[in-house]
Specification:
Number of strands: 13
Helix content: under 10%
Structural class: mainly beta
Largest sheet: 6 strands, antiparallel
Number of helices: 0
Radius of gyration: 18 Å
Strand content: over 45%
Length: 218
């Protein structure tokens, strides 16, 4: 089965989502990334889209990007598809070790995969995230309509004034919730439509980046 873009070299907290910048941040709004290495570990993983052992998190050498990869994230309908396969989800709980004196926020998140949607069928990717102990952000939805047979990409960005920063001096796990849905719609029941999510990537050298700040008193 065709697969989408599998990305590498990425980094920190993974998948984090948000909404398009209404205006640019002030020149002094953010600080340089910390020089010490960031460490991210998957504490727990649950969901039909990410069976145990099918996800991985990578941190870039310069602490400016993150990548989460999936190897079995596939939603599909039609043909001999399982009736429950139309929706797949994944809940990641990440332990993010940030150098003392620094805090971070996710400025944007980029989601990629492959979709083969029959005429009349549709698909949707959605994501949300939150720090342990805080409220979950609203899900951002990205719809796709058939006929479609290509790689797909969806980006969520956040205005700098609305960024959610990790609490300073307190360890808070980072939770990421993603979902794929495929609807047969008016397409032929005998034909399969599917959608995969192959990776989630962030990179500060592109529109997908993390924001860093020093904590008060550092």
């Amino acid at each position: 089965m065709a697969r989408g873009l599998l990305l590498s070299g990425g980094a920190l907290a993974a998948l984090l989502a948000t909404a398009l910048p209404a205006h640019s941040a002030p020149a002094d709004a953010f600080d340089d990334p910390p020089p010490d290495k960031i460490i991210i570990k998957v504490a727990t993983v649950n969901g039909s889209g990410c069976p145990q052992g099918t996800t991985a998190v990578a941190v870039s050498e310069d602490n400016t990007a993150f990548t989460v990869t999936y190897s079995e994230y596939l939603a599909q309908v039609g043909g001999n598809s399982d009736p429950t396969a139309f929706r797949k989800n994944c809940q990641l709980n990440l332990v993010v070790h940030v150098p003392q004196g620094f805090t971070y926020a996710i400025a944007s998140a980029d989601y990629r995969g492959f979709a083969a949607l029959q005429s009349g069928a549709s698909g949707m990717q959605r994501a949300s995230y939150y720090f342990q102990g805080s409220s979950q952000t609203a899900f951002k939805n990205h719809p796709f309509s058939g006929p479609y047979n290509d790689n797909w990409q969806a980006t969520d960005t956040t205005d700098w004034a609305q960024l959610v920063w990790a609490p300073c001096g307190v360890q808070r796990n980072f939770n990421i919730n993603t979902e794929l849905r495929v609807n047969a719609g008016t397409s032929s029941p005998s034909k399969v439509s599917f959608m995969t999510m192959d990776s989630t990537d962030g990179d500060i050298s592109t529109v997908y980046h993390m924001a860093w700040k020093t904590c008060p008193g550092k």
